[in-house]
UniProtKB/TrEMBL annotation:
Entries under SUPFAM superfamilies matching the protein: Carbohydrate phosphatase
Matches recorded under Pfam families: Inositol_P
Stored PROSITE patterns: IMP_2 (PS00630)
EC number(s) from the headed UniProt entry: 3.1.3.7
PANTHER family: INOSITOL MONOPHOSPHATASE, INOSITOL-1-MONOPHOSPHATASE-RELATED
Species per Swiss-Prot/TrEMBL record: Paracoccus spongiarum
The entry's keywords: Hydrolase, Magnesium, Metal-binding
Gene3D superfamilies named among the record's database cross-references: 3.40.190.80, Fructose-1,6-Bisphosphatase, subunit A, domain 1 (3.30.540.10)
Entry similarity comment: Belongs to the inositol monophosphatase superfamily.
Protein name: 3'(2'),5'-bisphosphate nucleotidase CysQ
Highest rank taxon of the organism: Bacteria
Molecular function, one GO term: 3'(2'),5'-bisphosphate nucleotidase activity
Amino acid sequence: MPAPDEDLALLRQAARAAGRIAMGFWRQDPKAWDKADGAGPVTEADLAVNDALQALLTTARPDYGWLSEESEADPSRLDARRCFIIDPIDGTRAFIAGQEGFSHSLAVAEGERIVAAVVHLPVSDRTYTATAEGPALLNGLPIAPSAAGIDGATVLTYRAASEPAHWAQGRVPRFRREFRPSLAWRLCLAAEGRFDAALSLRAAWEWDIAAGSLIAERAGARVTDRLGHPMRFNSPRGMVDGLIVAGPRLHGELLSALRR
């Protein structure tokens, strides 16, 4: 079984290849359509990146499982010791609009735990990396979350998370809400302290958060689902029950303020 550092090197190589393919479609009016059942948009670029990643990664690691937003579900992944968890383009709406804030999210799970992770933003050439035993890095330099408390914190989340119904006694904390289109990138932005937290109160697909969750954890953030439970990956459902990602102080304050 390859060491996590070997898997990380493979993921970095794959993420760079994904970026080159995506940039060939970006701002070139790629074909786009809506998935069934309101699952959001997809483009020919998503599929091209997915096909390239699957070929590269599964050829290098044929005994690993495969879970990707743009592939048919394969239940055999549940029996694999390790599994790739991939979002070929996270932030497809931003990609379609010609915005810069899309990313490639690549992770390896061993059992329920992520052991290697890369989030790559090709337009800005930002690459976040981590292994389960190593530091979280941005372009090779260590990162760390902020030490902010809840009052005045900048929280990456969607508008509905600010509704009183989600908070104990209807008291919405005095944080400032921000948004970025890629959920994987939001976790990384919290990991590096550019924003104080990333928060979602609705279920998140594993491919959106697997890589970012390890990067944030190894940076020193506390990373849980919305109820404060540890995240578990490569599950049959392929989803996690929301997320709270922040420095330990802010994480505790957000968790305490939420309605249970």
